[in-house]
C-alpha cells in the first residue's frame, strides 16, 4: 500500500509527459495550436497537483501560498501585456523559469550543506550545470528583455578585450567547479560560481543587436529547458528531465527554423558583433555607392491620387508601421480606398517586423479582415497585375537585391516582389537602411516614388486626401 | 553510476529525440506562440521547487525553494495564458487552415 | 510497482513516441526496405536470448535460449543484408535524389 | 570498480539505441537510406557485443556457436533470395524474430520454474504478453510467407463460425493467463497458452487475401517489435524495450502509410473477408454490367506498327509483367523502339504490382536506365502529348473510375492517366479484373486497343515484329 502513492505519482507523470509531447506537436500547426497549448497546460496542472502528494512535501500552506502568488502575478501580467510586447514578455517569463531552475540547485546545495552528508559526484555535476545554464538563462533573458523594451540600447555592445574577458569568466567557472567537485561544502566558492554564471549570461547577450533578440530568446528558451532537465537530475525527477529535454531539443529546432526564415545562421546571429560571421552587419557599407542615384519623392496629395484611381492596391507593412503604431490608420486608409472601389490586399512577409507574426498581430488588433491578408507565396504572382504597391515602413522584405545580388547579406531570402507592380509607393522617414543594414535599390527605381515621413502621419494624411477625392 | 542515474540518462536522451522530431515545419506566424508555449513547459522546474520547499522547518533552502515556486509559477501560468492570448488572435486563420 | 518497472515504462513510452515521430513521409519505393530494416532491428531479442542462454548448466531454458539466439541472429543478419541488397538496387536513384 | 562493466554496458546501449533511431530516420529518405541501414546494423553489433559481457553470461562457446550459425544462415539466405521474393523473405525473417522473442519468455518461464522462486506479478504479465505477441507474429508471418510463396492459396480462407471460434481462442488465452497469474508454475496451462497464441496467429492471417500480405507483414513487423519490448520487460533490459518500442511504433506508422498508398484502410485490409469493411472485394460485382460494352482487339503486328511509328511511347508496367517475368523482354522492346527513334519512357505507379517498389526492382534487374523511369506525378502531365501508352499487365493503377466513379472501391486513388494519351495498347491475358476486383472502363474506350496474351509472349512477339519494321 505504501507503494501506491509513489507509483501513482510516476504514472501521472507519464501521462503529463505525453500531454506535453502531444501539446508541443499540436502547437506547430495552425489548426490545432490552441488545443495543443491547452493540452500542455493540463499536463502541467496534473504534474503540479500530483507532486504535492510527494512524501517529502510536509509544508503545504507556504507552498500553496507561493503557487497562488505566482499564479496571480502570471495571470495579471498575461492579461495586461500588449500584443506588441509579446517577445519581451516571453523573454521575461523565460528568465524567471531559468532562475527558478538555478534556485532549485542552490536550495539543494544548502540542504546538503546543512545535512552534512557526502554529496555523490553526479549530483554535484548536475547542480553545477544547473547553476550555469539556469544563471545564463536568467540574466541573458533579462538583458534581452531590457533591449526589446528599450530600457537598454538595442545596438550591440562591445568593448576592448571582450573575448579574453569572456574566456576568463568561463575559465573561472570551470576552476570553481573543479574545486567544488573535490570539496562540495565550500560555500564561498559555490557563491562565486553562481555569480560567474550570472555574469556570463549578461556577456552572452550584450554583443547581440536588438533585432536579433527573438532568436536569442528562443535559444535561451531552449537553455531554460536544459536547466530544468539539470534540475531534474539534481532532485532525480523524471518529469523535470523529460519536460526539460523536450523543451531543450524542440527549442533548438525552433531557433534554427527562425534563423532560416530570416536567412541568417545561428552562428552569425550570436557572433556577428565580433566580426566573425558578420554578413548582415558588414553589408551596411553598400549604402555608400548610392549617393549618385536619384530618388523620386511625392507629397500625400499625389500619393492619394495614385491610390484612389488604382484598380488594385497591395499594402506591404513592415517594421516601420509597427514602430509608428500606424496599423489603425492603415486600416482606415484601406476602408476609404475600398469605398472608392479599389481592390485592397495586404501582403505579409514572414519576417516583416521584429518578431514572427508581428504584422498579423498588429493587423488583427486593428480588425483587418483575415481574408485580406495574403502570404508571400500567395501574393507574389499577383503583384505583376497590381496597380500600386504601398510599402509602409518595410525595407529588407522588399529589397530586390535579395534576388539579384549574390554578394548582398540578404541574398537568397525570399522577398515580396513589389518592384514588379506597375507603381510602388514607399512610406518611410528618410533613406536609412533597415534591419539588415543594406541599401535598397527599390527606392531608386523609376516606378518607385517615396513618401517621406513617419508612417502614422503619412498614412493619416493619405486618408484625409483620399476622402477628398 | 547508480542505476537511477542511468535510467535518468536514458529518459533524457529519448525525450531529447522526441523534442527534435516533434517540431517539423512551423509556419512563421506560430513561431512566437510555440516559443512561448514551450517556455511555459520549461516552468516545470516548479516541481523541483515544490520538493525543495517541502521540509517542515524553516531553513534557507526552504526559503530559496519558495522563491523558486513563485518564479516558476509566474513562468507557467503567464506562459500558458500569454500563448493562448496570442493564438486567439489567429482564430480566423485556424478556421481557414 | 518497483522503481525499475516504472523506469522501464517511461523508457518504453518515450521510445514509442520517437518511433511515431521518426517516420514522416516515405516514398513508396522505400516502404519495403524500411520494413525490412526495422524488422532487422526487432531481432534485438537476440540480447534477451543471449542472457537467457548464459547459464553454465544444461537446462531446458538454456536450450530454448540457444534456439532463440539462432533464430534471432538469422533475423538480424538476414534482415540487414537483405535491406542493403534492396537499397543497392536504388543506387542510381540515390545519386539523383 | 565492479560497477564499471554494467555502467559501460548501459552507456553502450544508449549509443546503440541512438544509432537505431538515426538509422530508422535515414531509412525513410532515398538519399540516406543505405547509410541508415548501416547505422542500425552497427548499433545492433554494439548491443550484441556488449551483452556478451553481461555477468549472467557464463557459457560463451555455445552462444558464439549459435550466433555463428544464425549469421551464416541469415547471410546465405539474404544472398540467395531473388529480388522478387523480398516480401516473403521479410515475412519469414519477421516470423523468426517473433518466435525468438516468444522463446525468451518461455525460457524465462522454465528458469523460474526450476528456481521455484516466486514470480512477481509484472514479470508474469510481461511473459504472457510476450508469448501472445511473439506467437502471433511467428505463425502469422509463416502463413503470410506461405501465401506469398504460393505454398498456400492466396485467396482469403473463411469457414462457418470462424468468428465465434476466434472469440473462443481469445477467451481461452485470457482464462489461461488468469490462471497463470494466480499459479505461475502450472506447466500444462502455460503450454496451452503458448499453443493458443500460435493458433491465433494462423487465424489472424488466413482470412486475408494474398495481395494484402505486404500490409500484413508490415503490421506483423510492428508486432514483432512489441514482442521484443515485452521480452525486454521480462528480462528487464532497456535496449530491448527501446528497440522494440521503436519498431512497434514506426511499424504501425509505416503500415498506415502503406494502406494509404493503396487507398485502403487498415481495418478493411484485416477484416474485409468478413464483409465488415469489404469495399475492395465487394466492388467485383461491377464487372457484371460490362457485358454489352465493346472491346477493340489487335494482333502483335498491328501493335508493333502503332509503336514503331509513334514519336513517343510510355510503358506502364503492372502486376501482370511481374507474374510473367516479362521485364527483360520489355527492356528489349524499348531498345528496339529507341533504335527507330521513338522516345520511350516508363511510368511507375507507386503501388503497381504487389509490393512497394515492385516495378523499380524488376526494371532495375533488367538494367533499364534510371533516367527512363518516371514517377506518377512526373509523367501524368506528359501523357496528353504521348502517342502511345503501352500498358503491360497493369489494371487498377490505370483505372479511370478512380477519378470519376465515387462508388468505385478505388475511388480517390491517384492513377496513371493513360486514357489521356492519343492511343492506348493494353497487354493482358483476358478480361479479368485486377487486385481490387473492379471492372476497368479504360478497356472499352475507343482509343484503347487490347493485345490479349501473356505479357512475356506478347512483348516478345512485339519485339520481333518491331525488328521487321
Ligand atoms: N520578424 C522577425 O521575426 C524578425 C526578427 C528579427 C529580425 N528580423 C529582420 O527584420 C527585418 C524586417 O524587415 P522589414 O522590412 O519589416 O523592416 P526593416 O528592413 O527593418 O526596415 C524598416 C524600415 O522602416 C523605416 N521606419 C522606421 N521607423 C519608421 C516610422 N516611424 N515611420 C515610417 N518608417 C519607419 C526605417 O527607415 P527610416 O528610418 O528611413 O524611416 C526602416 O528602413 C528583416 O531583415 C528581418 O530579417 C525579423
Ligand atoms: N504495390 C503494393 O505494395 C501493393 C500491395 C498489395 C496490393 N496492391 C494492389 O495491387 C494492385 C496493383 O495494380 P496493378 O495495376 O499493378 O495490377 P492489377 O490491378 O492487380 O492487375 C494486374 C493485371 O495483370 C493481368 N495479368 C496477370 N497475369 C498476367 C500475365 N501473365 N500476363 C499479362 N497480364 C497478366 C491481369 O489480367 P488478366 O488476368 O486478364 O491477364 C490483371 O488484370 C493495386 O490495386 C494495388 O492497390 C499493391
Total helical segments of chain B: 5
Write down the Rg of chain A.
26 Å
The level of helicity of chain A is 55-70%
Main sheet properties of chain A: 6 strands, parallel
Number of strands of chain B: 0
Overall mean pLDDT score of chain B? Answer: 86
Task: Walk me through the structure.
The complex is a heterotetramer, with 2 copies of chain A (469 residues) and 2 copies of chain B (97 residues). By secondary structure, chain A is α/β, with parallel strands linked by helices. Chain A is 60% helix and 7% strand. Chain A contains 18 helices and 6 strands. In chain A, helix 4 (86-115) runs parallel beside helix 8, helix 6 (162-182) runs antiparallel to helix 7 and helix 14 (327-339) packs parallel to helix 18. The radius of gyration of chain A is 26 Å and the shape is elongated. Chain A starts with a helix and ends with a helix. Chain B has 5 helices and no strands. In chain B, helix 2 runs antiparallel to helix 4 and helix 3 (45-52) runs antiparallel to helix 4. Chain B is flat, with a radius of gyration of 18 Å. Chain B starts with a helix and ends with a helix. The model of chain B is unreliable at 92-97 (pLDDT under 50). The chains are: A alpha/beta (469), B mainly alpha (97). Chains in contact: A-B, A-C, B-C, B-D, C-D. The interface between C and D is large, with 86 and 110 residues.
SSE layout:
The complex is a heterotetramer, with two copies of chain A (469 residues) and two copies of chain B (97 residues).
Chain A: H1 4-27, H2 33-51, H3 60-80, H4 86-115, H5 121-149, H6 162-182, H7 187-205, H8 213-235, H9 238-261, H10 266-271, H11 279-282, H12 300-308, E1 312-317, H13 319-324, H14 327-339, E2 343-348, H15 358-365, E3 373-375, H16 376-383, E4 388-392, H17 401-404, E5 423-428, E6 448-452, H18 455-467
Parallel strand pairs in A: 1-2, 1-4, 2-3, 4-5, 5-6
Helix pairs in contact in A: 1-2, 1-9, 4-5, 4-8, 5-6, 5-7, 5-8, 6-7, 8-9, 12-18, 14-18
Chain B: H1 3-22, H2 31-42, H3 45-52, H4 60-89, H5 91-96
Bound molecules: NADP nicotinamide-adenine-dinucleotide phosphate (2 copies).
The site of one NADP nicotinamide-adenine-dinucleotide phosphate (NAP) has 32 residues of chain A, from helix 13 and strand 5.
Amino acid at each position: 500500500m505504501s507503494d501506491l502513492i509513489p507509483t501513482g505519482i510516476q504514472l501521472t507523470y507519464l501521462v503529463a509527459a505525453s500531454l506535453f509531447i502531444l501539446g508541443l506537436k499540436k502547437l506547430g500547426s495552425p489548426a490545432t495550436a490552441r488545443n495543443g497549448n491547452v493540452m500542455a497546460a493540463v499536463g502541467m496542472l496534473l504534474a503540479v497537483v500530483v507532486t504535492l502528494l510527494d512524501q517529502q512535501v510536509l509544508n503545504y500552506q507556504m507552498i500553496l501560498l507561493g503557487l497562488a502568488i505566482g499564479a496571480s502575478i502570471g495571470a495579471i501580467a498575461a492579461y495586461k501585456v500588449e500584443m506588441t510586447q509579446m517577445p519581451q514578455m516571453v523573454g521575461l517569463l523565460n528568465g524567471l523559469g531559468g532562475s527558478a531552475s538555478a534556485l532549485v540547485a542552490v536550495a539543494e546545495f544548502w540542504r546538503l550543506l546543512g545535512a552534512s552528508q557526502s554529496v555523490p559526484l553526479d549530483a554535484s555535476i548536475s547542480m553545477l550545470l544547473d547553476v550555469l545554464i539556469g544563471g545564463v538563462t536568467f540574466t541573458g533573458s533579462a538583458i534581452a528583455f531590457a533591449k526589446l523594451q528599450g530600457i537598454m540600447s538595442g545596438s550591440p555592445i562591445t568593448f576592448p578585450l571582450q573575448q579574453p574577458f569572456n574566456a576568463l569568466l568561463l575559465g573561472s567557472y570551470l576552476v570553481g567547479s573543479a574545486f567544488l567537485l573535490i570539496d562540495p561544502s565550500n560555500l564561498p566558492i559555490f557563491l562565486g560560481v553562481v555569480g560567474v554564471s550570472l555574469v556570463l549570461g549578461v556577456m552572452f547577450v550584450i554583443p547581440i543587436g536588438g533585432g536579433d533578440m527573438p532568436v536569442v530568446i528562443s535559444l535561451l528558451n531552449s537553455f531554460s529547458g536544459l536547466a530544468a532537465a539539470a534540475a531534474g537530475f539534481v532532485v532525480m525527477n523524471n518529469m523535470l528531465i523529460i519536460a526539460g529535454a523536450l523543451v531543450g531539443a524542440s527549442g533548438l529546432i525552433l531557433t534554427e527554423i527562425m534563423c532560416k526564415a530570416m536567412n541568417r545562421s545561428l552562428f552569425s546571429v550570436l557572433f556577428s558583433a565580433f566580426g566573425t560571421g558578420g554578413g548582415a552587419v558588414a553589408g551596411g557599407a553598400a549604402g555608400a555607392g548610392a549617393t549618385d542615384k536619384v530618388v523620386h519623392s511625392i507629397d500625400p496629395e499625389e500619393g492619394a491620387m495614385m491610390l484612389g484611381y488604382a484598380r488594385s492596391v497591395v499594402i506591404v507593412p513592415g517594421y516601420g508601421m509597427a514602430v509608428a503604431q500606424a496599423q489603425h490608420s492603415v486600416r482606415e486608409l484601406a476602408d476609404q480606398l475600398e469605398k472608392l472601389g479599389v481592390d485592397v490586399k495586404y501582403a505579409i512577409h514572414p519576417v516583416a517586423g521584429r518578431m514572427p507574426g508581428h504584422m498579423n498581430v498588429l493587423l488583427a488588433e486593428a480588425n483587418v479582415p483575415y481574408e485580406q491578408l495574403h502570404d508571400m507565396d500567395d501574393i507574389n504572382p499577383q503583384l505583376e497585375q497590381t496597380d500600386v504597391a504601398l510599402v509602409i515602413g518595410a525595407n529588407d522584405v522588399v529589397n530586390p537585391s535579395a534576388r539579384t545580388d549574390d554578394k548582398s547579406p540578404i541574398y537568397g531570402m525570399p522577398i515580396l516582389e513589389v518592384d514588379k507592380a506597375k507603381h510602388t509607393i514607399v512610406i518611410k522617414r528618410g533613406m536609412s537602411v533597415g534591419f539588415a543594414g543594406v541599401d535598397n535599390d527599390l527606392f531608386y527605381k523609376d516606378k518607385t516614388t517615396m513618401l517621406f515621413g513617419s508612417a502614422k502621419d503619412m498614412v493619416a494624411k493619405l486618408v484625409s486626401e483620399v476622402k477628398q477625392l | 553510476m547508480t542505476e537511477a542515474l542511468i535510467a535518468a540518462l536514458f529518459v533524457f536522451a529519448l525525450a531529447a529525440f522526441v523534442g527534435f522530431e516533434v517540431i517539423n515545419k512551423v509556419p512563421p506566424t506560430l513561431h512566437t506562440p510555440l516559443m512561448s508555449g514551450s517556455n511555459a513547459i520549461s516552468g516545470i522546474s516548479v516541481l523541483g521547487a515544490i520538493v525543495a520547499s517541502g521540509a517542515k522547518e524553516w531553513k534557507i533552502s526552504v526559503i530559496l525553494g519558495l522563491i523558486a515556486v513563485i518564479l516558476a509559477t509566474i513562468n507557467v501560468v503567464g506562459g500558458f495564458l500569454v500563448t493562448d492570448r496570442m493564438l486567439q488572435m489567429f482564430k480566423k486563420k485556424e478556421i481557414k487552415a
